TrEMBL record, chains A, B:
Residues 36-47 have a biased composition (Basic residues). It comes from the Eukaryota. Gene3D superfamilies: Anticodon-binding domain, Bira Bifunctional Protein, Domain 2, C-terminal domain of ProRS. This is proline--tRNA ligase. It catalyses: tRNA(Pro) + L-proline + ATP = L-prolyl-tRNA(Pro) + AMP + diphosphate. GO terms for cellular component: aminoacyl-tRNA synthetase multienzyme complex; cytoplasm. It comes from Lepidopterella palustris CBS 459.81. One of its GO terms (biological process) is prolyl-tRNA aminoacylation. The lineage of its organism: Eukaryota, Fungi, Dikarya, Ascomycota, Pezizomycotina. Residues 1-52 are annotated as: Disordered. Signal peptide: none annotated. Keywords: Aminoacyl-tRNA synthetase, ATP-binding, Ligase, Nucleotide-binding, Protein biosynthesis. Residues 93-343 form the Aminoacyl-transfer RNA synthetases class-II family profile domain. Transmembrane segments: none annotated.
Length: 571, 571
């Protein structure tokens, strides 16, 4: 279910940048890029080595080699540490804190406003249950991890490690839902799931184990289920846009791309400007009565009239999921050549304060005085709920520290030295601005409690605006097929009139793929590229489609367009 | 590590009450009690069947058949639902909410006061890493679940499902800790772990998958590590005593019972009055340098003098864990023949308000009026952060509802009818009091905001006092061996002078066991009983042991007593 199941569909497509790392001796096991073998480059005390600041940073440009940049930024930025089981990664504290921020916000929405309750279902699913619904199991069979041994004994019946929990949860639904009075039943769990994929892994974006929430609800009516699907999608959109500052497009999946067994799938679709590829961000499915029929989840129709035969209703079900992939999308969207840029609302540390202006002539007393002022500023900011860190490390120069915290993406730096102290100000530096002059500012000490939260909010909204502008610029509306592939190649996704036909979609995918030319060393967009698939039918439809008149964009298709559909190469 | 590893040590001991359910055809797979096959008894609308209220409740007394009582109270009280993989259970929303309350409190302590950061390490551990430390792997080898297949392919290298994360985490520690400046490193994760046990499972208390937190920290000095061990133990004690209203005894494990590889293990030990057995509640270990030596986690000694040879220090490590077992201990401690009793501080619903006094003569207007007053009372209570539920279900009588919410353990019931409305009061009923008159009270509407929170706090502290008194009463100090077994048989744990010798402990265990008399149908304490093991050396030591003079309680032991040691049969 949810986006991760769609991740799987992409797996036949190789990342050009990853291809060059591919170990041809072992096709079964995904290999981490070789760079992981290098020990993480650690800041060295200044006095030991006069290393340039650049050495601790990213040594490749995001625009030149995105794959290498990504690997460096997640490891040097301390988001991810590699691990000795392929396709699995360690979520370090700084990235886990982002997940906790997402969790806290979303959990509160679904509990307080959605009346959803959290629960926990076992990680193991019996083969009997997993295989109960053929269509479902077929979607996952190739990637299910099986536990076959306990200690040294073979298990009589192997158990599956959950790839998703429909088959773990719906027998419980059938047991608990005995009457329409038991509806709606709304459960959610925050857990880990495993999909033993054999293709190229990518930290956050595609891994064998990932964290997510999976919501599963049952309703008496289709109308009620449908309303919830959209409510959840709104909250997913808020997680991306309001917390992660990542723009998304809301829409419905085409028949080709919907969750198998669902009535329909709604989705939010993101975009990675650096590659021009779309990325599924989160999905909210209306499952209709498909699963309730298979799992026999029925209630008596409350509208049955006395004396007449009792009618039964199969409940209407939804499922919806949001994963740690979201963190990867955030990193790919905002990061730059200096490292990560974390939006303030989800940053574990929002502000770092660095004492500056200490020289060989500074007396110990003056230094102590400055440090205590820095500590006081931190306390002032904490009193208005800002997450602050102070950096008093003696072994490092201010410049080294600036680079170090920029690499980690801390949204705002405050510098404070004797001159600032005299002027009763702090010097600020925004991480999101490239231009040094635009990044820097000055805030009066007396204004800290109002000005710094406001500045953080500006950073948050400016980050979104910048990313949103990039997405809008690269979401190109076109109607003529001859523009389709060139526009894709220009790192865009395209909005085109389409018939919504499945075969036509397949044809477009085929026609827009660029075949392997045998040169696997290419890392730019001249490399072989996957075909474009439909990302969604956006809820927001432009004008311009006249039923029975506007043609489908595919020149080989005889049908008229039903709607504007977003197509793109994608993750 | 932590208590769960000690759970395993108990597994050779059969629960008498569970024995009768044992399926002798299949010794490998633990079987759930047969009762699980019965569909959960659901409240039936009153008009359909004139069932007595008792039918929805527990139909066995806690004092007569604890195992059957426990099974009924966790399923009918909607804490646990059985599942089709043996030894795995569904944590229903009401129990998961308790876990969330524990998590919120403990997480805040370790983050804010302990400066611990959360992270997430993969669920899979390579065989290479798992087997790196022989002593460690030997402790877990028999219960490790192995994934050997992905889809239809056999994995080249099977991977272990984590039984605990030392071997997943410490290679990362070795990588991240390069200098004393990187210390202390304090990480924690909230996750699921799996121990594929082949013995009798018991929901919450012993299951194949359970939820816990595992903290892993590294320090420069032994002193710093030792201080943290005790700080964590204090917080564990607070979780039990302040949140779950469950008394515990703090102490140190004997050499026999400590975590293998640890310098020492500190523990909090609980007590189940109904069986007279001790239960390990949570443990905080000082691992010393044992693991850092195996995983090569070293730093340069910061006290090395310039010019002299650099000395290296192996870091000092701790690990500490608290599991969902805590919920089971809480249920076993407080529950009664009417069902669960949840302490207010962790209850998902603290107060339920039930409209009463509606008769056939009540006009629809009067009923609406009453309902709106009930809704208003709920809002008043919510405004002071009380978690309130209102029960307007039409199909059930007030009496039925009383029983239903008592079964679920809601700490306080408010009844509100036309007479209460006239008097401007609400009628209260405390779940923790057996006696109806003692349970009931009246609160003026005008006092709600102060009186109800205060009443909930009284319930919380009275629940603790009652449980604490029971534990104190059954913690019997004795010095004469002839009293040892009879005192155990009287459902007590015993505090005895002991030499702290391992062999002597084994002998006591042997001497205090009651052998199987072949009658497996017995369910009370006359059944075969395990021997007593040492639970802990309590921090709080009574007077009375004179070194070189006081004898060890074991008559066959020639040594003098070193301390008062708590012994007991245990879970």
């Amino acid at each position: 279910m949810t986006e991760a199941s769609d991740q799987m569909k992409d797996l036949s497509v190789s990342e050009p940048a990853e291809k060059k790392e591919k170990d041809k001796k072992d096709k079964k096991e995904p290999k981490e890029p070789k760079q992981k073998q290098k020990p993480v480059q650690k800041p060295k005390p200044q006095q030991k080595k006069k290393e340039g600041a650049a050495l601790i940073g990213i040594d490749v440009s995001k625009s030149v080699d995105l794959a290498e940049w990504y690997q460096q930024v997640i490891t040097k930025g301390q988001m991810i540490s590699y691990y000795d089981v392929a396709g699995c990664y360690i979520l370090e504290p700084a990235s886990y804190a982002i997940w906790e921020a997402i969790k806290a916000w979303f959990d509160s929405q679904i509990k307080v406003r959605g009346k959803v309750r959290n629960a926990y279902f076992p990680i193991f699913i019996s083969a009997d249950n997993l295989e109960r619904e053929k269509e479902h199991v077929e979607g996952f069979a190739a990637e299910v991890a099986w536990v076959t041994k306990g200690g040294k004994s073979d298990l009589e019946k192997p158990v599956a490690v959950r790839p998703t929990s429909e088959t773990a949860m719906y027998p419980y639904f059938a047991k608990k839902i005995q009457s329409h009075r038991d509806l709606p039943l709304k459960l959610n769990q925050w857990n880990n799931v495993v999909r033993w994929e054999f293709k190229h892994p990518m930290p956050f974006i595609r891994s064998r184990e990932f964290l997510w929430q999976e919501g599963h609800t049952a309703h008496l009516t289709k109308k009620e289920a449908a309303a919830e699907v959209l409510q959840i999608l709104d909250w997913y959109s808020d997680v991306y846009q309001e917390l992660l500052a990542v723009p998304v497009v809301k829409g419905t999946k085409t028949e080709n791309e919907k969750f198998p067994g669902a009535d329909y799938t709604t989705t939010i679709e993101g975009f990675i400007p650096a590659t021009g590829r779309g990325i599924q961000a989160a999905t909210s499915h209306c499952l209709g009565q498909h699963f309730s029929k298979m799992f026999n989840i029925i209630v008596e129709d409350p509208t049955t009239k006395e004396g007449s035969e009792t009618k039964h209703i199969h409940v209407w079900q939804n499922s919806w999921g949001l994963t740690t992939r979201s963190i990867g999308v955030m990193i790919l969207t905002h990061g730059d050549d200096r490292g990560l840029i974390i939006p303030p609302r989800v940053a574990e540390i929002q502000v770092v304060i660095i004492p500056v202006g200490i020289t060989a002539k500074t007396t110990p007393e003056a230094r102590e005085q400055l440090y205590s002022e820095v500590t006081w500023i931190a306390e002032v900011l904490r009193s208005v709920d800002i997450r602050v860190e102070t950096d008093f490390r003696e072994a490092y120069s201010p410049g080294w520290k600036f680079n170090d915290w920029e690499l980690k993406g801390i949204p705002l730096r405050i510098e404070f030295g004797p001159k600032d102290s005299e002027k009763h100000v702090v010097t600020t530096s925004r991480r999101d601005r490239d231009n040094k002059d635009e990044a820097r500012g000055e805030t009066a000490i007396s204004d800290l409690k109002e000005a710094i939260p406001a500045l953080l909010e500006s950073i948050q909204s400016d980050m979104f605006k910048k990313a949103d502008a990039a997405y809008r610029e690269h979401r190109v509306t076109l109607t003529d097929w001859k523009d389709f592939v060139p526009t894709l190649n220009g790192k865009n996704v395209v909005l085109v009139p389409h018939c919504e036909g499945g075969k036509c979609e397949d044809e477009i995918k085929e026609m827009s793929a660029r075949k392997d030319d045998g040169d696997n060393t290419a890392v730019d967009t001249k490399a072989p590229a996957m075909g474009a698939k439909s990302l969604c039918i956006p809820f927001e439809q432009p004008e311009g489609i006249t039923p029975g008149e506007t043609k489908c964009v595919n020149p080989n298709c005889k049908d008229f367009a039903k709607s504007w559909v977003l197509f793109g190469r994608s993750y």
